[in-house]
C-alpha cells in the first residue's frame, strides 16, 4: 500500500500524571509493543512526514532520535495547555492526539486535517463526549494560551470556546476509547487481540 503522508506534523501527548491508572500508562505494555507510547508512535508514524512526542521528561527507550521529543517548558504543572504552548511555539499547525487513544482511525485523522483549514481548532466528537485532544490546532491560539497561563486557567475547554473552532462528529465510540483506568486498559488489550 502506498501511503501519502500528511504534511502537518503529529504530536502525541504523553506527559500526564496517569493518576487514575496508578502508574505511567504510556509505559504499559500494549499489543506487540513494549509500551503504549511505542505502539501509538509506530502506528501513526507512516502517515505523517513528522511525528513527535510531548512529555515532561525523556522516558522512552524506543525513541532513536531525541529530536522527536518535545519537553514541556514547565515541569511542575501538569496541564495540556502548557504542552500546547510548547508545541505551538514550534509549529504553525499540528495534529494532536493523546497516547491513551490508540484506536482512532487514520480516516478520522484525515477528515479532521482536511476540514481544518478555516479554523484554529478542529476537534472530534462522538455521541458521548467531545474529544478535546484529538484534532488539529493552529498557532493562532498562542495569544489566548499566553493569557490563560498568565491567569492560571488550564482548562482545554476554555481554550476551545475562546478560539475559532469547529467540532466534527464521528459515530464509532470505541474508536475513541480512552485508557485512563485498569478496566479500560483491559478492554483495550482485548480489542487489540
Commentary on this structure:
By secondary structure, the chain is α/β, with parallel strands linked by helices. It contains six helices and seven strands. A seven-stranded mixed sheet has the order 3-2-1-4-6-5-7, sandwiched between helices. Strand 1 (10-13), helix 1 and strand 2 (51-55) form a beta-alpha-beta unit. Helix 2 (80-88) packs across helix 4. The two termini are 23 Å apart.
List the helices and strands and how they pair.
Blueprint: E1 10-13, H1 36-44, E2 51-55, E3 69-71, H2 80-88, E4 93-98, H3 106-114, E5 121-125, E6 130-138, H4 142-150, H5 156-161, E7 165-169, H6 182-192
Parallel strand pairs: 1-2, 1-4, 2-3, 5-7
Antiparallel strand pairs: 4-6, 5-6
Helix pairs in contact: 2-4
β-strand number? 7
Hey, roughly how much beta strand do the residues contain?
A: 15-25%
**If you average the pLDDT, what whole number results?**
89
Class computed from helices, strands and strand pairing: alpha/beta
Proportion in helices: 25-40%
Computed over alpha carbons, the radius of gyration is 16 Å
Q: Estimate the global geometry from the Cα principal axes.
A: globular
Largest sheet: 7 strands, mixed
Number of helices: 6
Strand order of the largest sheet: 3-2-1-4-6-5-7
Low-confidence stretches: none
